[in-house]
Each structure stands twice: as structure tokens, then as C-alpha cells.
Amino acid sequence: MSVITGLIVLKNYKSITSRYFIYFLCYVLLFELIASYPRYAIRFGLQDYIKDTLFEKNFWVYNICWSIGSTIFFSWYFYNNIKSLMSKRIIKYVTVLFLFFSCGYMLFSFNNFMATNAKPILLSHVFIIIICALLYFLEMLNSEKLLNFYKTLSFYVATGIFIWMIIETPLIFFDRYSTKSDMDYVVLKWTIRLLINVFMYSLFTFALIYCRPKHD
What we know:
Blueprint: H1 2-9, H2 16-35, H3 37-43, H4 47-50, H5 59-79, H6 85-108, H7 110-115, H8 119-141, H9 153-172, H10 183-210
Helix pairs in contact: 1-2, 1-10, 2-5, 5-6, 5-8, 6-8, 8-9, 9-10
């Protein structure tokens, strides 16, 4: 829904950050489709080709495309929506350190990176995006942006991803309890994830329609 809306209103947004946010939504949709390859393999009887390989599960797709890819995007996004030189430096330095750390983790813990949620990278990813969002909110509170905050796409992006991170991240660390022997937890986790995804992407959809590009 948010991708379709974004493509429809794309021509109305002249800001490079707004346009690339819409492109980012398309990117998320694309890698979600790619990450579903284990289901495609089962559906078409190809599971034996990836069984007992590093590609049997799709953790590596999310580690690369979400944990690393979205960190780079949101760091860039907030960097370009913040005017404070100090905040920009913080974002730049933590992102560079994150990239070096991620490369090192992939090099020395390749099997874990491919076959599990790379929790050290994931934690760094969450930390950086939350820091970026908080720096954005702090600048907004101390500037004239506060007068028109509800008209800017960047405010809704920051709010959506911040709330999503706060709720979604703890669920990942309880994945070990997501088993058929505890279906109550499985249903609860699925419901929470459904609701926060609906909330975030609905917020993005609303913002793309409501926000006036001249304020962004």
C-alpha cells in the first residue's frame, strides 16, 4: 500500500530525501519478496537444492538488506534532514564504525551471519537508527520545525521507524521460544508483528498523501 501510494505521489516530491524514501519502500518490498525464497523452494519442490546449505534459511537476506542496508539508508536520510553539524558528525562516525564492524563480523563469523540473526549487527543497527531519530526529534524541538512538524514527511518517517524499532526488536531476541510447543506465544508474536507493520506502513501511507512537499 505504501509503495503504490509512494509511486503515485512521487512526482509531487522534489526533495531528494523524500524521493529516495519512496525508492527505499520499493527496495523493502523487493527484498521481502527475495527473502521468501525458502517458501518458493518448498512450493516448487526445490527445497532439496538448498537443504543443509548456508542458504537453507533466509537470515542472511535480512542481515544484509535490512540490518545493514536500512541502517545505511536511515543514517543518510536523517543526516540530510538534520542541520546541526554536531549531529551530522555523530551520525557519520557511528555509521562508518558500524560498516567496519559489520564487515568484520561477516569476515570472522560468516556462518553465523548466513544462518542466524546476526544479533551484534542487529543491536548496532537498532542503536544507530534510534540515535538518528532522537537527534532529529531533538533538533525539531529546538527549531522552527516544531511549528510545522505535522506537515513534514520526515517527522512521520522518524516516528514510524522509532516506534517500530522499540516494539519489534525485543521480539527477535525471543525467537528461541517461538516453537510449536508454545503456540500461544507464536500467535502473540505474529499478532504484534502484524499490528506494528500495519501501523508503520499505514503511517507512511498517510504521510505521503497528507504532507505537503513544500514543507519537507
